[in-house]
Amino acid sequence: MLLDCKCFGGGGGGGTVGDDLLWHIDLKRHASGDYSFAMVQANSKLEDQGQVFTSPSATYLGVYDGHGGPQASRFVSRRLFPFIHDFATEQGGLSAEVIRKAFSATEEEFLQIVKRSWMAQPEIASAGSCCLLGIVSDDLLYVANLGDSRAVLGKRVSVAGEKGNGRVVAERLTTDHNVGVEEVRKEVEARHPDDAKIVIHARGVWRIKGIIQVSRSIGDVYLKKPEMSRDPLFQQFGTPVPLKRAVMTAEPSVTVRKLNPEDMFLILATDGLWEQLSDEAAVDMVLKNPRAVRNSKEIGEGCTAGGCKEERNDLQRHNED
């Protein structure tokens, strides 16, 4: 069982401080430095979840951007970390394969819940969640994502001809699984060569089957199990979607890298933040605020002024210089 796991998904929950729309957790210690957390609610029903687990040897951070209802994101916040812990124990340590297996197990277990709940709650088939995971363990950083939440690293680099300790730049560690990105759109189209309308431009953006922008998630079962979208029970709730096969996946992109003294902090956030701030602007905002300031809250307040919803983790390292 995981201990010292803080979950966030409601005003003032999980040890947070907040008002009606914005709440946060102050800077806390973890094995390699500090972390902070902030969430902004924009919808009448909060569909997002986040969590932080700390131990003497590792720190886990999760950001889950739900859509179509809160069921998927809430489920991920309960099950993903325990699955990682169990598989890591079985296989003798953490690895990219352990993380992939944990995502797969989370997806499969949620599918079973949807099947059991189907008759009484057919709308659960439309609940899904983007997932962004960051783990620091043994000087390694593991980042995994489904969907268009993003991890950005702030790192110091030396610049020829400049005095001092160099400048801090933004390095994006994830790929946005959003068909608005041409590479992702071509990837989806290549998997469905017999469907000329697999991705169409609808309501101002590119969408899979004119419905959803992200190509990977936990849940969204009606877009992964054609028999469910065709079922008359679901059609009483949602529009039927003509599918021959799944149009979304739950296969995460996983990155593993060794942490270096130049790596200063990591930002994990949903697309709501990145629609308002560039990678560089977010890194600059963290950099210009002293560590005593609640960095995640600062960005959360700036995002509130921009009218977005977002959920954000900020993890800072302490380096010995």
TrEMBL record:
It is an enzyme of class 3 (hydrolase). This is protein-serine/threonine phosphatase. SMART domains: PP2Cc (SM00332). Its cofactor is Mg(2+); Mn(2+). One of its GO terms (molecular function) is protein serine/threonine phosphatase activity. Pfam families: PP2C. Keywords: Hydrolase, Magnesium, Manganese, Metal-binding, Protein phosphatase. Coiled coil: none annotated. Residues 308-321 have a biased composition (Basic and acidic residues). It comes from Linum tenue. Its EC number is 3.1.3.16.
